[in-house]
Amino acid sequence: QVRLLESGGGLVQAGGSLRLSCAASGDTFSKKAMAWFRQTPDRRVCVAAISGTSGHTYYTDSVKDRFTISRDNALNTVYLQMSGLKTENTAIYYCGSKKNGRCYSAYEVRQGRPENDWGKGTQVTVTS
Q1: Alpha-carbon separation of residue 6 from 43, 63, 65, 86 (angstroms)
Q2: Can you tell me the distance from the alpha carbon of 82 to that of 108, in angstroms, rounded to the nearest whole number?
């Protein structure tokens, strides 16, 4: 099964940029649509961006035009380039395979549901 490790989070001022990385292990990475999710203080983990297997991407309205998801299948890595960061972007960011639902609970993530391929997350904190 795929194991994931997020990195690149940190503390940044509003308007700044960060680049998140998600390194995956496993031999089926290129066959999976991958996504970035964010966990806000209400403990909801909701999709922010999706990278398909053939170049297609999806963004939620709250991040489109500011965030860019990309992938390097040779490196088994997914990236999230974030620019124009806002305080409301403060969250724990997780990567994982694309899922059918839009949001999940933190409990579900801890339980490895609906699929057991969540990373441990990386904290992004945006200050004013």
Answers
A1: 18, 19, 22, 20
A2: 26
| Local structure of residue 28 (DSSP, 8 states) | -
Tell me if 55 sits within 8 A of 73, measured CB to CB: no
In angstroms, rounded to a whole number, what is the distance separating the alpha carbons of residues 102 and 124? Answer: 20
Tokens linked to 79: 């990236």
- With vertex at residue 11, the alpha carbon angle to CA 92 and CA 105, rounded to the nearest 5 degrees, is 10
Nearest to 117 by CA among 102, 98, 96, 91: 96
102 with 47: CB under 8 angstroms? Answer: yes
3-state secondary structure at position 73:
helix
Structure tokens at 24: 């995956």
Mind listing the pLDDT tens digit for each residue in 18-48? Answer: 999 999 998 788 999 999 999 998 999 999 9
pLDDT of 74 strictly over 80? yes
Amino acid at 59: Y
